[in-house]
Amino acid sequence: MPALNFKKEFADLVESGEKTQTIRRPRKRPIYTGDKLYLYTGMRTKSCRKLGEGVCKNVKQITISSDGWVNVDHIEFPASRIAYKDGFNSVEDFIGFFLKRYGLPFRGILIEWCQDGEKDPIKT
Question: Which residues does the UniProt record annotate as the domain ASCH (predicted)?
């Protein structure tokens, strides 16, 4: 039952269900398709708030390069196809976020979920 923590800037999007994916570094304890996810902001602080729950639909390998392209499970496409879904206002903000925090190219995982209460794609 993995917990995911989101920065304040993304919390409202996660809570409203607009943001149903996140890009992270690989985890020590991996998330698997079908796992129940607990979504929070402010974990390990007094202002910790639960944003919701979800069920993991997919976990994919992702590489983000500085040239505005991403590679998801060996398929390359423009970063714009993923940046807006991930809660960024522009491709430049998306690339800048990963450049500043991790350096580029960034290699990690893309986690997608359906919100709690939605039809579970795993069981259909």
Answer: 4-45
Look up residue 25 and give its amino acid. Answer: R
Residue 50 lies in a domain: yes
49-101 residue pLDDT tens: 999 999 999 999 999 999 999 999 999 999 999 999 999 999 999 999 999 99
Domain interval for residue 69: 3-115
List of residues 6+ apart from 53 with CB closer than 8 A? 36, 37, 38, 39, 115, 116
Token pair recorded at residue 34: 């079908």
- Indicate if the pLDDT at residue 120 is higher than 60: no
What element of type H or E holds 95? Answer: helix 91-102
CA quadruple 77, 64, 121, 40: dihedral, nearest 10: -150
The helix/strand/coil state of 40 is strand
Beta strand pairing status for 3-6 and 36-41? parallel
